[in-house]
Amino acid sequence: MKFREQQSHGLASLYISSPAHYAHCSHSLLLRPDHQETPQPPNMSLTDILSAEAIENAVKDCQAPDSFSYKKFFQLCGLTQKTPQEVKDVFRILDEDNSGFIEESELKFFLQRFVPGARTLTEKETKSFISAADDDSDGRIGVEEFQTMVLS
Questions:
Q1: Which one, of 143, 152, 138, lies nearest residue 70 by Cα?
Q2: N-terminal to C-terminal alpha carbon distance within the chain
Q3: Is-contact 106 95, C-beta < 8 A?
Q4: Would you say the pTM of this structure is higher than 0.90?
Q5: How far apart are CA 140 and CA 152, in angstroms?
Q6: pLDDT digits over 3-25, tens only?
Q7: Is beta strand 101-103 parallel, antiparallel or unpaired with respect to 11-17?
Q8: At what angle do helices 52-61 and 70-77 cross, to 10 degrees?
Q9: 54 with 114: CB under 8 angstroms?
Q10: What's the whole-number mean pLDDT along residues 123-142?
Q11: Among 55, 59, 53, 93, which residue's Cα sits nearest to residue 77?
Q12: Which helix (H) or strand (E) holds 10?
């Protein structure tokens, strides 16, 4: 079986050929105009920016369901004392799917991104978190919205 890739007019095509069968499969690569890719530095972790002790204290403070306060969490973990660039770096780490946004599905596991095994945020906490940061009402948090939320 042979594989050959061809690109033309914004389409990527894959030709698969075998003695008995020829298949042509094409797909277009859609780029969202609102997405500006800003890759995170390789192998960067939250403990490169925040102290492990501060992270642990912040997560411990909100162990009980419905006790999460983003303002208190950001203060306890030391994020409010970081530079705008460091806050953006934290955002990129939290944006697990590299979409340029933190969506509700990612936000549910927010605490687990800081400490594996931490609890998930409740639906109430997740919705409250999004509504506090989502200035453009698109249902997700962009990097600028996150930075404003943390540093204000």
A1: 152
A2: 59
A3: yes
A4: no
A5: 19
A6: 444 444 443 333 333 333 333 33
A7: unpaired
A8: 150
A9: no
A10: 96
A11: 55
A12: none
Long-range contact list for 121-130, CB < 8 A, 24+ apart?
121/68, 122/65, 122/66, 122/68, 124/66, 125/66, 125/68, 129/68, 129/70, 130/104
Dihedral sign, CA of 83, 113, 45, 62? Answer: positive
Name residue, tokens 């799917």: 97
Find tokens 């939250």 and name the residue. Answer: 46
Give me the helices (H) in the chain, please.
Answer: 52-61, 70-77, 84-94, 104-107, 110-114, 123-133, 143-151
pLDDT tens-digit readout, 53-112? 999 999 999 999 999 999 999 999 999 999 999 999 999 999 999 999 999 999 999 999
**Structure tokens given for 26:** 């094409």
Quickly count: other Cβ atoms within 10 Å of residue 102's Cβ. Answer: 25
Do 27 and 12 meet the contact criterion of CB atoms below 8 Å apart? yes
Enter the tokens of residue 58.
């912040």
109 touches 120 (CB < 8 A): yes
